[in-house]
Amino acid sequence: MLKLDRRALTMGLMLMATAMAGTAAMAADGLPPMKQKDSYKVGFAQTESNNPWRIAQTESMQSEAKKQGWQLVYTDAAGSAAKQVADVDSMIAQGVDLIFLAPREEKPLIPAVMKAKRAGIPVILLDRRVDDSVAKAGRDYVTFIGSDFIDQGRRAGEWLVKSTGGNAKIIELQGTVGSSPANDRHKGFADAIAKAPGMQIVAAQSGDFARDKGRQVMETLLQAHPEATAVYAHNDEMAMGALAALEAAGRKPGQDITVVSIDGTRDALQAIVDGKIGAVVESNPRFGPNAFETAKRYAAGEKIDTWIKVPDNFYDKSNAAQSVSSAY
Ligand code: GYE
User: Fold this and answer.
1) Which candidate, 288, 291, 285, 290, places its Cα nearest to that of 326?
2) What residue ranges do the domains of the chain occupy?
3) Most buried residue, 138, 248, 277, 292, by CB count within 10 Å?
4) Which residues line ligand 1 (CB under 6 A)?
């Protein structure tokens, strides 16, 4: 009897010791810890570099790394989720202290997030989310730093309702299929226009957040829907492509068709000044200071919110001119 109790006790102690060893390697919430050091080697896995928004984001990350004296391992997935997964793999192999990841699509990048976690490397998501019913902030990755895309779509929709008097036949140029900004910018916009029965989306298709694709898609959709009176583009590059297609078709953007979009690039703000785009909801790409500050707070053991929201401006005729020169 006594012998058995002793064995049970030893077993219990052993189990407790194993459990404690497990927690010693992990923060309380299961996230990999980050040691406090003077300088770090961190990764930034960029999704593509084919538009001014991406270039501004990369510049902001690189200049902040320089300012902090941290080494930045930079990769560009060139628009391929599969390459981005491989890029994260190589960062894990290089033993970076933390990975900043701008996930191209919501689902395909989840394995990369989980693999980094298993390798003991914390991940901070920048500008786009992964599917949070599978991978969770505060458990599988540290946090998401980025805009409220549903709100951006809502603001674009509300502006369009107002400026068209609640009557419009809309062509929607959507972002990259399966990306969180494309999903959420559609949702917020659809919710906003649902309140006005005269607002109708006559066609919607992805232009992959790219200017030339936006132009091509607009050309096709305009041929099928010459009755369109408005364009909602999920980003400025596609809006610029749409302007080219509209003008080539003899339309007069700003006069016979209203254009609204999202980002705040220099070209788009100039197009507002020129009277061709009606309004732009900002999506701020300058993540550097916020990203590095968050990593430092995490290393210091601070509790990090699961979403660090980036506040966004709004541009129309009243303020675009004064913002053109500081835009990217
Ligand atoms: O609007 C777009 C870019 O993920 C918020 O991606 C970002 C979006 C941005 O390619 O221009």
Assistant:
1) 285
2) 41-147+285-310, 149-283
3) 277
4) 51, 53-54, 127-128, 181, 209, 235, 262-263, 283
Distance 210 CA to ligand 1 centre (A): 10
Encoded amino acid at 108, one letter: P
- 304 is written with which tokens? 């990090």
| Residue 90: both structure tokens together | 């190589």
**80-117 pLDDT, tens per residue?**
999 999 999 999 999 999 999 999 999 999 999 999 99
Ligand 1 pocket: which of 106, 209, 212 to mutate (most atoms <8 Å of CB)?
209
Which of the following CATH numbers is that of domain 149-283: 3.40.50.2300, 1.20.1560.10, 3.40.50.720, 3.30.70.1340? 3.40.50.2300
pLDDT in tens, 173-206: 999 999 999 999 999 999 999 999 999 999 999 9
136 sits in the region (left: phi over 0; alpha: psi -120 to 50; else beta) called: beta
Q: Three-state secondary structure along 257-309? A: EEEEEEECCHHHHHHHHCCCCCEEEECCCCCHHHHHHHHHHHHCCCCCCCEEE
Which of helix, strand or coil describes residue 308? strand
Spacing of C-alpha 192 from chain mean position = 21
This prediction's pTM? 0.91
